[in-house]
Design brief:
The complex is a heterodimer of chains A (about 170) and B (about 425). Chain A is α/β, with parallel strands linked by helices and about 170 residues long. Chain A has one domain: Aconitase, domain 4 (Alpha-Beta Barrel). Chain A has seven helices and seven strands; from the N terminus they run βαααβαβαββββαα. Chain A has a seven-stranded mixed sheet with strand order 4-3-2-1-5-6-7. Chain A is globular. The two termini of chain A are about 25 Å apart. Chain B starts with a helix and ends in an 11-residue tail after the last helix. In chain B, helix 6 runs parallel beside helix 8, helix 11 packs across helix 13 and helix 11 runs parallel beside helix 14. In chain B, about 30% of the residues lie in helices and about 20% in strands. Chain B has a five-stranded parallel sheet, sandwiched between helices. A five-stranded parallel sheet of chain B has the order 16-15-14-17-18, with helices on one face. A four-stranded parallel sheet of chain B has the order 10-9-8-11. Chain B has two domains: about 260 residues, 2-Layer Sandwich (Aconitase, domain 3), CATH 3.30.499; about 150 residues, Aconitase, domain 3, CATH 3.30.499. At the A-B interface, helix 5 and helix 7 of A face strand 1, helix 2 and helix 5 of B. The complex binds iron/sulfur cluster. The site of iron/sulfur cluster has 12 residues of chain B, from helix 4 and helix 10.
Chain lengths: ~170, ~425
């Protein structure tokens, strides 16, 4: 993602409804480091995810993505793997906040489930539009306001505030 | 355009004329509540990294409740960090071991209609009972609030829950929420605000309204809210504060809501949630006869003065069954004091209840009163997730305080109405 919230031709990973925080950051490994937790990210639904995910890939999922506990590692695991954005019709509320605060773009997109694995998409986060490269189909998503985008570009809330207080 | 109460409060906090659902805005925070578990020990390192202190100590309420009183050296250390933080930051509103955060915050007069409040706890929706917009945030988020006094929020849509009818004997606000959990599921209100309306609400005391908003969290809501009224104003006055003008924050009659759900409380009986989810709720008859090892009356959800009185109604002149134990951890020191003065405590202890300190206690497995492997408990708390109250394979049922007390007397889950006739 660049500073204008543009993502170009990112590869899609597709998931269903209710990907919960335990699927993203299994409770079993909660006492371990973020690296260890992240190495089990999504393994119960897609064993190859951790092996094959590349920096800049995006996730398109069904409803209530990130539902469950308030653990911040659920978002941090995706950031760790370089996931550029998650698109879903709805998110678990605390996950949604945690994700944005850790620099992970979360976009509310009613059609996210229609986008299939392996397709490539371009996103304009501030305009609120998504385009599938292979088919040319366009969907809309809720636009991300500029002030939150600036925070995400800085890497999340803490680095963003560090910059703010340094000035 | 007609607006909901949440929209009005958020717009005011954001310094805007109006906001619409889905819009993301930055708001000034009127009050931030933190506790010993998610508070100082987690936010202090971030504030240090930022090189700043709390933005306005007068707008921060710190409460120790999760690890009180310390049961081991680790919890003692957490409390030590909490106390030191209060001193370092010069926090004027630090309530040390005075009860559970959501209850103490209310009873000390910190909440008023129209306020924009954040809490470092997932049951922060409780505060919405006072007509304010209060929601829970994580530790990183909270550090940001403490450093800047502001936070961003996505304006939620409103889900309306209309409660009508007179409350039958043996039924409480808790049953409304358990029935809703069963009906809507744990993502039933996905990050929306639940606004409780209907003729029953105006008859409910503040503590019952708090229970409704508290368990909005169990429906996945961002928060719950109940419009301020005479009862709200009176409560605030009794807490020694000056009530705000609640009229200006009311939801306009024509405001758009996403959905409306009706609950006829007159037709509702006591509900019980079977392990391991509040959504596994059903009328008590479905689980009658399940033997219990422990009955627990505690938590911000189910151990306020009114809850203790419900339990006392059942326990009056009866004894806890042989082989079962009843633990009671009142929600606050204030409630304990009133219950001691009016004879409620005497009724509880005469029946054989074991009184515990005010605090979160066994609710989330932090304090005393946790469960051994395969033990069965019925609790007046809000959550019965696997392993939350102790051993992973322990079984926790949720019920209202009448139902919990009745189970303690019978040694098994029982319809409490049989004891109220
Ligand atoms: S009593 Fe239980 S639910 Fe309430 S704040 Fe404490 S741990 Fe959370």
């Amino acid at each position: 993602m660049n500073t204008h919230g543009l993502i170009k031709g990112a590869k899609v990973w597709a998931f269903g409804d209710y990907i919960d925080t335990d699927v993203l950051a299994p409770g079993l490994y909660m006492k371990s480091s973020t690296e260890v937790i992240a190495s089990h990210c999504l393994e119960t639904v897609e064993p190859d995810f951790v092996k094959n995910v590349n920096k800049g890939d995006v996730i398109c999922a069904g409803k209530s993505f990130g539902i469950g506990s308030s653990r911040e590692q659920a978002a941090q695991s995706l950031v760790y793997h370089g996931v550029a954005a998650v698109l879903a019709p709805s998110f678990g509320g605390i996950f949604y906040r945690n994700a944005i605060n850790h620099g992970l773009m979360t976009l509310i997109c009613p059609n996210a489930k229609q986008i299939t694995a392996g397709q490539h998409i371009s996103i304009d986060a501030t305009a609120g539009s998504v385009c599938i490269q292979e088919t040319g189909v366009q969907y809309s998503c809720e636009p991300m306001p500029k002030h939150l985008l600036a925070m995400m570009v800085d890497g999340g809330l803490v680095p963003h505030l560090q910059r703010r207080f340094a000035n | 355009m007609a607006e909901t109460s949440a929209q009005k409060i958020i717009a005011h906090a954001a310094g805007l004329d109006k906001v619409v659902p889905g819009e993301i805005v930055t708001c000034s925070v009127d009050l931030a509540m933190i506790h010993d578990s998610g508070g100082p020990r987690r936010v202090r390192p971030i504030l240090e990294k930022l090189g700043v202190g709390v933005w306005d100590p007068d707008k921060v309420v710190l409460i120790s409740d999760h690890y009180v009183p310390a049961v081991d050296a680790e919890s003692a250390q957490i409390l030590d960090v909490t106390r030191k933080f209060a001193t370092e930051q010069g926090l004027p509103h630090f309530y040390d071991m005075q009860g559970i955060c959501h209850v103490v915050l209310a009873e000390r007069g910190h909440l008023k209609p129209g306020m924009f409040v954040v809490g470092g706890d997932s049951h922060s929706p409780t505060g919405g009972a006072f007509g304010c917009f209060m929601f829970g945030i994580g530790a990183t988020d909270m550090a940001g609030v403490l450093a800047t006094g502001e936070t961003w929020v996505r304006v939620p849509e409103t889900v309306r829950v209309e409660v009508t009818g007179g409350m039958p004997k043996g039924v409480s606000a808790k049953d409304v929420m358990l029935a809703l959990c069963a009906r809507l599921g744990m993502d039933g209100a996905d990050y929306q605000v639940i606004e409780y309306t209907g003729d029953t609400i105006s008859t409910l005391p503040m503590s019952e309204r708090m229970t409704l908003c508290n368990m909005a969290a169990e429906l996945g809501a961002q928060t719950g809210i109940i419009a301020g009224d005479k009862t709200t104003a009176e409560f605030i006055r009794n807490a020694g504060a000056e009530p705000s003008d609640f009229g200006r924050w009311l939801t306009d009659p024509q405001a758009l809501v996403r959905s409306t759900h009706q609950i006829d409380i007159a037709a509702l009986g006591p509900q019980v949630a079977a392990p391991h989810s509040p959504a596994n709720s059903a009328p008590v008859a479905e689980v009658e006869g399940v033997k219990i090892d422990q009955a627990y009356i505690g938590a911000c959800t189910g151990a306020k003065l009114i809850d203790l009185r419900m339990a006392a109604e059942i326990l009056e002149g009866r004894d806890v069954a042989k082989g079962a134990r009843l633990l009671i951890a009142p929600a606050s020191q204030k409630d304990t004091a009133v219950a001691a003065a009016d004879g409620t405590l005497a009724t509880l202890t005469a029946a054989g209840a074991i009184m515990m300190p005010s605090g979160c206690g066994a609710c989330a497995g932090y304090g005393a009163g946790v469960l051994a492997e395969h033990e069965v408990c019925i609790a007046s708390t809000a959550r019965n997730f696997k392993g939350r109250m102790g051993a992973t394979n322990s079984q926790v049922y949720l019920g209202n305080p009448y139902t919990v007390a009745a189970a303690a007397v019978a040694g098994e889950i029982k319809d409490p109405r049989e004891f109220l006739r």
